[in-house]
Amino acid sequence: MGYLDENAREIIRPIKRMVEDEFLSRPGVIGVDIGEKVTGGRPTGRAAIVVYVCAKGPLHPQQIPAEVGGVPTDVVAESIVLHRARVTRTAEPVAAERHPVLRGGLSIGPARSFRVVPPEVPVAGEYVIAGTLGAFVVTRDDARKVLGLTTFHVGCVDDSWSVGDEFVHPSRVDGGVPGADQVAVLDRAALAGSVCAAGLRMGARPIRAEVLDVGAITGSAEAVVGSTVRKRGRTTGLTHGVITSADATLRLDFGDGLGVRTLRDQIRVYSSERFGDHGDSGAVLVDADNRVVGLYVAGTGPTGYANPVGPVLRQLDVELLTPGVPESRRPEPAA
């Protein structure tokens, strides 16, 4: 997908918003975005409403009109999956990094296991979850609690979550042990609009306001189409990509009693390498100045999707912890 200037996006955006829910209700459609129309594998230079389908077939060109309001459409086959890792509780743990001082970019997961049945998994059983601790934030109230930032589907997993759920580093997938490796408890979460996020109240383990392999977090910023970003995830480590859109609307299947949810205004990243994989959900996207622009949630191969950081911070009622943001009160150890 080519880059479009903001003027072209501003013209198309209201038309895309007008039709996206109707398009998403059609069989096989999993996303609606803004990008450059590609014909026969070659970019045309024309701005388009891009429609993502799970498998491009002969019916899709017929079910999506060739243009809407004078704007062409482009049907693109795309696979978009949530990138937490889920394995059976009895599986052999993966050898993982263990860090006495916590930073962003590390493995984390719930201490509890989850009963999951087909078709969500091949075999019914008890499963454990792994994701990424993205960065640290501070609550905006007087308590100034320090929270670890991750995604809703890592922090809450299903519809039986509750405040106080225990989290371990490394995750149980990676050999973490409930109790002995506890580092946080669930404090708050949001799954609405453009946000799929959770905040974990950190315990007594020392922390640093930085991301492993990236450095100190300097603040937050809006995603800029065409700019380069990095993320440090539990599974793929440090990867690089380019923001190709901040207008993606996605239908994602959260399963586990939560069902299909729509996330709007998501950041799309394209990379020449594998940008993310299962276990990377919760990683933060940072720009060249180490400002957080997004929270990684899903993708496939070279393509990744992330929440814009502004709505995440607002819905969780927090601000990013940086070396320049004081904590007025160090959190009590998580019970």
TrEMBL record:
UniProt keyword annotation of Nuclease present: no
Keyword Plastid: no
Keywords: Disulfide bond, Hydrolase, Protease, Serine protease
Source organism (scientific name): Lentzea rhizosphaerae
SUPFAM superfamilies: Trypsin-like serine proteases
Record protein name field: Trypsin-like peptidase domain-containing protein
Family: Belongs to the peptidase S1 family.
